[in-house]
Amino acid sequence: MYDQPLEDRGLSWQDLVTWWVRQHPEHSGDPTRARISLRERLRRSLGNNGAELLVFDTYLKLGFDLPALIPQVYLNYDPYTLSELGGASRLARQRMDFLLLMNHRAHAVIKVDGIQHYARPAGRTVGQEPGVGWLPDPAQYGLVGGGGPRAHASGL
Question: What is the spatial distance between Cα 126 and Cα 44, in angstroms, rounded to a whole number?
Answer without folding.
Answer: 29
